[in-house]
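Ex. 9. Protein: DUF4595 domain-containing protein.
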Amino acid sequence: MGKNYLFKIVAGVFFGLMVSCDNSSSDQFEPSANDGGNGTTTPPPARVLEKITLNGTVQEEYTMNGKVLQKGMLRDAGTANYYTGTVTYINEKIAKIKFIGSITGSIAYDFSVSEDNKGNVYSATCTATATDPLNSFISDYTFTYDATGKKLVKILEKKKVAGNTAYSQFTESTFTYNGNNIFKADCAKGTLTGTGAPNMATAKLTTYSYQNYDSKISPFSTLPKTFFTAWSLIRPENFYRISPNNPTSVYVMPPAPAPGVNTPMTYVYDAFNYPVSDKDQALKYMYRNL
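Predicted structure tokens for DUF4595 domain-containing protein:
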């Protein structure tokens, strides 16, 4: 799994620079609501992911207030930059997440999100502020779910760039599932027509494939799905993080002529089927019991 961060570094070159586990508002911090695939009647302990390290260096860290996520710090792909996402709640639902980079000049991403009672995001707006106003933008997102309301099947982003008041660009992300896990995210980017519709003739496609899932507990499923949904809107290689299990291979195919990149991912699990490290003991997951 240490290769996951190698994957992010390689992916950063291309992109410039995440049995069902329902993350609803009632149980998003309660993976012990099922047996975690451990095949026993003993429930796993209720816990949250607290930290991920690579060769002893912190790659991600999550700060809780009791059972409530306050902020998450994540290393950005292919850079020395860390983004800290600070979460704001209204009526016990996530309403805002602001990602600020550790390096001067990093783009700041300020999300306003709306959650339904299942803990799904159904609309969002991102105001991205860059040092150069030409790189700033405002994006509005619409989310489409399947008939059960559990599986995210499409996200349409419309973007206003460089202070313009009209939408001019779009990204349409379409998801394919294997069971309850996202198997593939097809992300098409292009320009909008004069009527504001996606002009697919202008689109360039990047495909993210999250393959060969295990049947164990994803460490990211112990934290709010909305947080990783927002982070994946910035860095779509992370869409697998809103799945309940762990992919053992990640394949990214950017627009031609760039080559595809495949990254194997390995895990060592504890007795309750939470990943605790990769097979080389380089990447380690640390949890806090609730």
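Check your answer against this statement. DSSP finds two helices and 17 strands in the chain.
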